[in-house]
User: Fold these one by one.
Assistant:
Number 1:
Amino acid sequence: MSQKVLIPTKLSTAAKDILEGNGFTVVQEAGVDLVELAKAHPDTEGMIVRSEKLTPEVIDLFPNLKAVVRAGAGYNTIDIQYARSKDITVMNTPGANSNAVAEEAVGMMISCARFFIEGDRSTRAGEWKKAQLQGFELTGKTVGIAGFGNIGQLLAKRLSGFEVDILVYDPFVSEDKLAEFGAKNVSLEELFAGSDFISLHMPATKETANVISTDLLTSMKDGAVLVNCARYEILDEAALREVKKTKTIYYANDVYPKDAAGDKTIADVSDIMLPHLGASSIEANTNAAVMAANQVSNYLGKGISVFAVNKVLPDGLSPEYQELAYSVAKVAKAWMGDSQPYEINISLYGELKQFDKFLVPAIVAGASANDKVVNAEKASEILESHGIKLDVREVDDSKNYGESITVDLIKSTNGKLERLSVRGTVAEGNIIISRIDDFDKLYYAADGFSTVFIYNDRPGVLADITQILASESINIEDLRSPHNTEKKRSIAIVKTNSEVSNEVINKINSKIDSEAAFQVSL
Ligand SMILES: NC(=O)C1=CN([C@@H]2O[C@H](COP(=O)(O)OP(=O)(O)OC[C@H]3O[C@@H](n4cnc5c(N)ncnc54)[C@H](O)[C@@H]3O)[C@@H](O)[C@H]2O)C=CC1
Ligand SMILES: O=C(O)C(=O)COP(=O)(O)O
């Protein structure tokens, strides 16, 4: 039965399309209470949200939930610790909506400095406030950016045409990053006192709660502009109200305690108020939808967690290695065909051996991959229930395999055991299959469609394979065919531009009489 993903938010249909294409059942209903949705879909295993609040009470309504992707950056609306305690992995989609927010911030700055909102309102009302609404320019001024992550950096880049000086406050930013943008690292106090425009782009955390205080606001230059497209909780609203009584500063706001209609307490001190529009561009929505759908699909289907915020991959383990784990196992499983392994042996070489708990689920998912979708979390249980032994072996690092993974599926046919062994590594960010059976040094990039034949070495076999594929109008993109002269065996790995049907594989097989013939798509 296919796994269910709930999208209780307004999100590009790209997410639903990707997930359905990968075999998931998708329910997308925006604006419906999560409690109601939980009643109707208690079997939900994955969820994609935007600013919807996931409290412990809401999380408890979804007993089968395994993965939540916040299609966006800020995840302060999700109780990630509670989710962790329920073994739910929460991810976000960094960078997906950054440009939309950076552009919004530039728009806010100029709208404030040139009085666009008051100009519009008063002119509509029949007034003519040309003399009163003389503004000031952004060009050549000093802009302070608090929080120099994805959005902060893009903002600096977008502002470069305005020839501004940039001050940055971010306790975690590197000197290299600052140099790249020609920005100066300062304290938050120096940033507030020295900037004509200030834009907030740090996350809402315990450390940033109410950090924009009376002292900072009082220190701002007269007539300076403060833009908050980050989070409501960062600014001390009462302090802003007090300071604004005696000082002319402008405040542009996009964020609230909750996203909902109704009166807003911040209204009297805001010069511009938008209904949390930062990420609301077509482009950002599509980017976030595509990223989120792939992340849910990879996690539930392959055990690969990318951008997890409550189960962060340990230092030294990049997500490519989880992908490698899945891919190596999937190649071995494709070789094995429909029968079930008697045993799975896993060898994690080099630094990878310490990361078994992050890699084994992906291997188990790959080794169980008959359909497009498998349930990575449940795969171990399934293996156990089928009596399949899983063995993570002691490895011999003197073999110099670097950071690589070997998956051996042990096949049992009428009591006779056969080892189907595949090894891979990551090189320059690419997933590389380095060995199948005893054919090593393959160095073959595992993506797209590959058909593999193992056969007795003799002249003319490659010609037969390529000729049959050509007659089916299938184009070959790569072909590796090392020989084992001692055993007089060869392997041909043929990467094609499209899927090769079973019928065509059988046709080739009967012509070349191979001992193994299988296709794998990665
Ligand atoms: N208005 C809107 O629609 C949107 C609002 N946001 C908000 O903007 C925030 C930033 O988004 P991104 O740039 O994508 O995230 P990011 O994670 O790429 O960047 C955040 C930056 O803040 C820095 N930071 C962390 N703690 C800090 C502190 N105490 N003081 C100063 N800097 C600190 C981090 O080092 C990092 O460089 C999000 O957390 C979210 O709350 C994000 C997207 C849309
Ligand atoms: O990505 C973020 O942090 C945002 O604030 C965007 O929120 P939204 O997806 O528009 O509800």
Number 2:
Amino acid sequence: MIIDEFEWQCESQRLEEVTKELIKQAYEVGDLKQALRTDTLETQRALWEDTGSVSIINGLDQIADFMQSIQLIKEQKAGHEFNKKLEEQYKRMLLSPYFGRIDFLEEGEALAEKCYIGIANLISDDYNFLIYDWRAPISSMFYDYEIGDASYTCPEGLISGKLTMKRQYKIENGKIEYMFDSNLKIDDEILQSLLGKSSDSKMKAIVTTIQREQNKVIRNDSYKNLIVQGPAGSGKTSIALHRIAYLLYKYRNKITSKNIVIFSPNNIFNEYISNVLPQLGEENMCQTTFKDYMHEALGNEFQKEGYCEMMEYIFNAKHESSYLIRIDNIRFKSSMQFVDVLKGFVAHLETVNKNFKDIIIRNQLVISANEIHELYSKDYIRLPLKKKLQKIQERLLFLLEPYEKKMVEEKIAELEESGDYVDSREIIERSKVIVKDEMSPITYEIDKMTRFNLVDSYKDFYKDLEIFLERANVKYDDKKITQIKNYTLENLRAGRLDYEDQIAILYLKNATGDRPKTSEIQYIIIDEAQDYTPLQYEIFHQLFGQAHKTILGDIDQSINPFMNVGDYRNITQIFEKDNTCVLNLTKSYRSTMEITQFARGILNNKVTEGYVKRRGEEPKVIGCLDKTSIRESILEDIKVCRNRGYKSIGIITKTIGEAEEVYDALKDSVNVKKIVSDEDEYVNDIVIISAYLAKGLEFDVVMIYNAGQEMYSGDEDRLLLYTACTRALHVLCIYYIGSLSPLLMSEY
Ligand SMILES: Nc1ncnc2c1ncn2[C@@H]1O[C@H](COP(=O)(O)OP(=O)(O)OP(=O)(O)O)[C@@H](O)[C@H]1O
């Protein structure tokens, strides 16, 4: 709706007033920050000069003063940091104080309240809300309602009324660029103009255009665990980050960013998303990857296969004789049945008859085997296996102490009497060594009875695998299981741990009680959730059972055909069913309509809705004679795209091996970077990257390197190719040699 001149004047005047208030408050905060800094320096100086060196000789008062000053410095520093952040927020707000307005007429009131919505609250000295934070309860109506009946929930309960107006603004550098009233949802026009831009170097906040279905996820508080399924580009990662910002606002007195952890697919992605929360005025949460956590937990004892190594094997080693066995191995260990079988094994470990023995010293019974068994099966029954054995060991060593002490005393007396030693210290040391020697068979026995070796135990599991399969009622193919057993045992004996075995060993480690304390983590976010196996979800549950979980993924983007979640029902089986809810997102935002339709064709999914109708050019599918001609086409297309102003170009290969090859072929002709490890840095330029490392990222232009039939032939490659194509915002070029992949031939 067009806005008349009078309205423009009113809005411009209001913006001026708000800007003045922002400047005033920014100065106040700046002064306060400076004062706190001066105070801190002064306290530090006083502490140094007045207190001098702290010593107990100067009396307890001095120590008390010292501690008080330290506490004061801490508080002053925290105050300074807080005000520094506020000052930065004011600076950001001055550029664009708000982006939306709703006029809300509450039931029973005569006048509608004008609510301006921005990235943070601005409250005047007389307690008027000049701007509402987008996360405030009242602001939810901006995302949820059109003109007409509306309501929101706040601590006082449900507030109902009517939205009489909804306005959107684009304010840049403190000036209104445009504004318009929208009767409908957050207008497609603004959304399309945002989406039509060239991609930034990092993911950006979408606070001005959050959609209703996205808002539902961001603010959902009804369930402990949320599973969010959404197609490529539906904003899952964006939502996850905005949800974190929302939680930090809503529970600001209870949690900080340190209480939230996000599991990302890799460190490239971690870097890519690292700007969103700071843009929203919040500190980043803890970011990690499953692989990093797992490798740290398992230590360096074994030769561990990396995630990329496994992916390269899956795509490159089809000709190897053991390939099919390895694939069966991955499939089996990624199945829900494997979780049940492994759980059964853990339960068995608890009950297995431990070979406890009487502890006897010099014919004296210290503790009988039965008594040790009592400790194991009664006193420490509630502890997990490893902890239980540790406790027993501590207890036995404690019981030995008086015997040992007495034996040392006797030995000292004996040596003194012998007259062979003159130095009493030497006599003591010598006596201790002799007694230790005498005791060593007993301590060895204790160690043996209470030792728990994770990998040995994992080997035992395979030795009797059929028994555990039967106990868990799992039907199995004898031949396959024998092959899996032999394959795994051979690897373990050689000190090699395949990626899928690392997950299983980590599970065992946690299940037997050797796991880190994670009670401070109250929220966890798992992005790209489709690529975790049920066993990995068990591990998340083991580690963060107490935490609220937001799990976001797209089953159609399972980049590993053999190792994925399979079905979200597997997750609900693991977490508390009645506290877990699955929400679906239905719309894609990233790509043009043409690219989205083309990509959905790969899934044999003809769609006419479920995406923003942003128009672009049809994807180009270019047949090439050989690799040299692909190279030439790519170089030509890079030139064209650069001239059209596109910044980021992703040349997507199937594997890292292929990415290296393409990099070598292109590097002398154009300035390209390669991303060939999950530790590499994200760059917003021309990059060569394998499809499985590109998941979650996006590029203005995507060039799929060689989508010939040889590369993407069967169903197993379908989702990988789909994921690669859906990384494109504006342009998609597909090159191939020989015949085109049949996956790209569907009528979309
Ligand atoms: N409401 C929105 N307003 C503006 N842009 C949006 C909105 N939702 C999503 N986007 C944009 O769409 C793109 C895709 O978002 P995002 O990466 O969060 O989606 P995703 O579902 O995690 O994607 P994928 O599963 O394909 O990795 C991003 O550029 C994001 O900024």
